[in-house]
Amino acid sequence: MPKISEDIIRAVTDAAKIEDVVKDIIGERRQDNPGGLHKAGVNMTCLCPFHDDKNDGNLIIRPSTLSAKATGRNSYRCFVCDAKGGPVQFLMNAEKMSFPDAIRWLGKKYNIPVDDVPVNWTPPPPKPVPPPPPPLEMKREWVRELMQVDYNQNVFTLWFGRLPWSEEQRKRIRQTLWQYCVGCYKDGRVVFWQIDHDGIPRAAKLMRYEPDGHRYKEKHGERNSTGWLYNQDGYRQECKPDEHTILKPLFGSHLLKRYPKAMVNVVESEKTALIMATYYGHPESQLWLACGGLKFLKIESMQPLIDQGRQVWLWPDKDGVKGWQDVADKLGSERVQVYTKFFDACWIEEDGPKADVADIAIRMLRNPDWKPRKPESTPAEPPTAEPIDAPLPPVPDGVSKDEWRKHLATMKSIADYDTDHPELIDEPFADVDEMLDPRLHHMREVIRLRYNFKNLRI
Ligand SMILES: [Zn+2]
Hints:
The strands form three sheets. Strands 1-2-3-4-5 form a five-stranded antiparallel beta sheet. Strands 6-7-8-9-10 form a five-stranded antiparallel beta sheet. The protein has three domains: 6-109, DNA Primase, Chain A; 140-377, no CATH class; 401-450, no CATH class. It has 458 residues and is of the alpha+beta class. The chain is built from 17 helices and 14 strands.
């Protein structure tokens, strides 16, 4: 068999793209190929074919489309079995090909004549893509229904309201609970609605709390104190925590559209998100979302935040930094980073090695005279970053430029008015309502834009 020339090998390896090769061998992720290739931040991932992989996200594919300076561009690497290499190595290892055969395979794929030895391979015909399963959607009136309760009758909200808030923070309690659509279930559990970025309620998490704000400890043989409500054939039904594997939106995701310029802080528990939101206020510049636990901190739920160009800070608990750092590494986006300065400044011995962010915030509420260790750098405050600039709204079809300018001016006066009269946006559910009603679709745009009008020159 003739030897393949160095020039041809170089031409082939220059043309080969790791994302093409993995797509051909593993396939893209679809309903019938759940372990297939898909985006993960700036990278891509799929189940690793080189070890018995159960969770995707271990094999990181750095596509050829990254900037030429990016390390590891056009290569793959598995965090578990340490398999790594470029397109040629992937073919050799995944398909047990010899080096010359891998070059021939790639030559055929990229139309580079390699030699006259036929390649024992034809690209597979594209499989028909089955329609995606209907997403689980809850009825919006259920959100409203479970919110129509007296917060003073619920163990969690009662505890929450009785924390030693400052006067300023106390004014924010009700607004926070309403904004996050916190509800109460008939059996006394609190309801944390999981409403997605488009305002569609996907699921509701039910949790039982002790009067001291800790999670209720289940006694032997007792019914689950944590559960999920889903739409089952049009009825609101409870399932066990792991019964449904749908992607649950981050708690608070529905607020992203309302606050388009806000930085996003992601914490572990819903309780922590509510505490931090009340503690610091200013949702227009910083929002608090909760993932509900490290195992739910999925690349898929972070992807929309990256796509929106948000600055995202991950706030793990004291003992969770490594796990969260791994997720940030896998995402590989400079805009998603782990934030530990809060612990550097505020953690003290008595908080314990497993302290969570909320425990420390509550301790600081109880001792208002206690000051963080490095007050000069104010690291206890959430980090700030330049907010992203939303593009100016384009002139819609059928509207004259003058009419549009008038409309923008009205919007700006509304925005100014809102900013000067924050008490008037104390009924956030009205906004949520608008977001949920497709007939008021144009209002979504209004909500998205109204906070951008403050500094708009018309
Ligand atoms: Zn592996």
